[in-house]
Design brief:
alpha/beta; Rossmann fold; 7-stranded mixed β-sheet; 9 helices
């Protein structure tokens, strides 16, 4: 995986992940470390409240019923948590994961599906999806050290859904592919590679993607959606949940266009 974000930041991230894998005491507080907190827990309390508002607009009963289950994400890593007016305090990024999981389920139906996530990080979104929606399997594509961190984190929860780690060289489709900001971090050649070799081979996709700066060499939103529309019925929209965000994101929830010959 080749990123467009600064190499210095990636190096600090990788070095700290290696430390967390060696040191259990560090693992118990890894989400507080300043070298990686901005990468894995970069949602503000205001952003968390915005996500909560979106969840309640979609299904207010669901969030009240599953609040404690969602908050279990924060048992590991000692993240900063926010009191949102009800239930136990929760990290704002946990609220983002809850919104993304609920919305993806309403659009694509996660239960019983085989899911692949490109760039799964420490496993926060995976934990919520596997626990609350019970897919048939969940696979994470990331660099080896981060996969080891995800395995260490997810193993603490004894999930019913089997979780697999796939190499960055993996090629092939799935029922659902998820890319939560990850494709936005790749250089253009890898963006296209993952689209061709995984996303376009899958039955459906849920993609959260930064809108690139016009001066960048990454794919524009128009290019990105044009590639997807060749194979998928694409439902996409733009949002800017957090006031602190400099860039907005677009979200694509896509289902493969039915083929007359019966192929996927």
């Amino acid at each position: 995986m080749a990123w467009v974000i600064q190499k210095k930041g990636i190096d600090r991230y990788s070095e700290y992940v290696d430390l967390v894998l060696r040191d259990d005491a560090e693992f118990l507080k890894f989400r507080r470390n300043r070298d990686i907190r901005g990468i894995i827990d970069g949602v503000t309390p205001a952003g968390g409240r915005s996500y909560l508002k979106k969840i309640r607009a979609l299904d207010s009963e669901w969030i009240e019923r599953r609040w404690s289950d969602i908050a279990l994400n924060d048992l590991i890593g000692c993240p900063d948590r926010t009191y949102f007016g009800c239930g136990v305090p929760m990290s704002p990024v946990c609220m983002r994961y809850a919104w993304q999981a609920l919305e993806a389920d309403r659009r694509l139906e996660l239960g019983g599906k085989h899911i692949v996530e490109i760039g799964g990080g420490y496993g926060g979104l995976a934990r919520i999806i596997c626990d609350l929606f019970e897919p048939a399997s969940y696979s994470i594509i990331d660099i080896p050290s981060v996969q080891s961190l995800a395995r260490k984190y997810l193993d603490r929860y004894h999930l019913r859904t089997p979780v697999h780690m796939l190499p960055t060289s993996h090629r092939g489709g799935s029922d659902i592919v998820i890319a939560n900001y990850s494709l936005a971090e790749f250089v253009r050649s890898e963006q296209r590679s993952y689209l061709d070799s995984i996303v376009l081979l899958s039955k459906s996709a849920y993609i959260v993607h930064n809108i690139p700066n016009p001066s960048s060499k990454q794919m524009s939103r128009k290019e990105f959606e044009s590639i997807l529309r060749d194979k998928f019925d694409v439902d996409s929209y733009e949002e800017g949940v957090e006031r602190s965000e400099q860039s907005r994101v677009f979200i694509c929830a896509s289902k493969r266009i039915p083929q007359s010959d019966g192929s996927r």
